[in-house]
Amino acid sequence: xxxxxxxxxxxxxxxxxxxxxxxxxxxxxxxxxxxxxxxxxxxxxxxxxxxxxxxxxxxxxxxxxxxxxxxxxxxxxxxxxxxxxxxxxxxxxxxxxxxxxxxxxxxxxxxxxxx
Amino acid sequence: xxxxxxxxxxxxxxxxxxxxxxxxxxxxxxxxxxxxxxxxxxxxxxxxxxxxxxxxxxxxxxxxxxxxxxxxxxxxxxxxxxxxxxxxxxxxxxxxxxxxxxxxxxxxxxxx
Lengths: 115, 112
What we know:
heterodimer, A: about 120 residues, mainly beta, four-stranded antiparallel sheet, B: about 110 residues, five-stranded mixed sheet, about 45% strand, globular
């Protein structure tokens, strides 16, 4: 597609429920990133995928968070047993690896509210 | 990646040039300066990047000092739509497998 697409745009869930957030990167972009942004805060890196390499999971805040990227394209971020502190905007970005430059294209984000 | 320092906030009158400074005194020879911005309720947007020469595109100009220890992003004719948080990031090209780190940035308010 023309841009990075994320769904849902808004998700309200109850504490303890599992949620899945989806990211469709730009076609042909091999690098994919997940960040989150809590209200009034900066961007916090979560996880990074590059081609067939093992993902960089160093930013995941707990083992309740996981992500996968199927077929080198679509990615799903899963949060199990959600907590109120998980409330944030979850942003996905993709990059055309061969360009070399760190030009990331971000989606509009998925706003998660945990009640 | 080298650390950057930006003022937390700035105001600019609509139609005037907005000059956003960034200090990166520990920048290495192979590190580029990148600028992104984030408009309220949107994801960050790439603006421009450069190594040592001044750069210009349809969005902005980037002026890098000769010693490369600081730079200025210039929005030549700021509009209300340019109100956003602007992030200055220093990074080697490619950067290996480590992600871009966004600091706190400068909150630019364009005033009518």
